[in-house]
Amino acid sequence: MRRGTTIGCGLVAMLTLTAAGCDAGPFSRDYARTVPNSAIQVGDNRDKTWEYVDRDGESRKLNQCEDLSPWNVAYRCTSPDGSVELTYNASKYGTRKPVLRVGDQEVPLYCATDGIWGEPLRYCIPLSDPAVPPQPVPRKDKG
Question: CA-to-CA distance for 61 and 94, rounded, in angstroms?
Answer without folding.
Answer: 22
